[in-house]
């Protein structure tokens, strides 16, 4: 007669075998559920979560010695930033979760609306997504793989962004449901943008990557003043002055470079002349709401008046002009993709709101399987 001990051992072995077999059959969930009937693949969720972690790590209050690559530290830290247009302060894990949810809501809204409106991606859009995916995979493929993200997931995420661009045109484009009018374009260009002509004088010697010293900077500033004096004679019309601008650059930029012990051919100097429309996103990089290092000096000088502007690493001889003296709305739109500049924030806000309003049928167990605590920042 077998002992109770033997029977218990046999039972334990049987249980362990069942568990082992079950383990062989089990696999990580392929999705984390759906939003608005749109399935959220695990790879898309993981990529959204990984991107959200990177955002959170940039606003986390980390202790001395802790870095953005210290996942445990970031998830425990206090994160303060803006989510959905609101100031948010939360522990890192919750901050990442909020951003991730917002990202997959946006993904679902784009997929749903694109399908409902019979959107079509052209070959250029799909090729761009594939090319960008190749580039990202070339530089970050090992890290993506370590985080369970496949190349196909990266490409699907990029295709989703291309679909959002199509929805922008289907909403605000010429044939859209709410097309932007010429009057709206004109108002935007006149009140939110700056058309600037400029000659740039670097204060950095790009051969040695050294900043100009005081004497060199003084010489460059003198050269810039001479350039401005010439432009005040040759480029006083209210229309764009490309020829005079390039001539001035060819004359004075090599002289400025020589002050730093560098040489430049006049044919290369033309690339230091610029004439372009600066949108609000372009201008934002030059300062804060209190003072903009580019626009405020131009405003002080007045329309059509040349002035010198010290931007720290570059000195500009620049002026602001009215682009409509030279170009039409159609010209400017084709040159600068004004539709995207004007309405990209609006369509994003609409899609975020639409995604948040959709029915959420997410699988909490699946999302727990892909916990942010498992994120890897080093491979």
From TrEMBL:
Q: Which domain of life is it from?
A: Bacteria
Query: From which organism does this entry originate?
Result: Gemmiger formicilis
Q: Does the keyword Signal apply?
A: yes
Which first-to-last residue range defines the signal peptide?
A: 1-27
Q: Which keywords fit this entry according to its UniProt record?
A: Signal
Q: What is this protein called?
A: Foldase protein PrsA
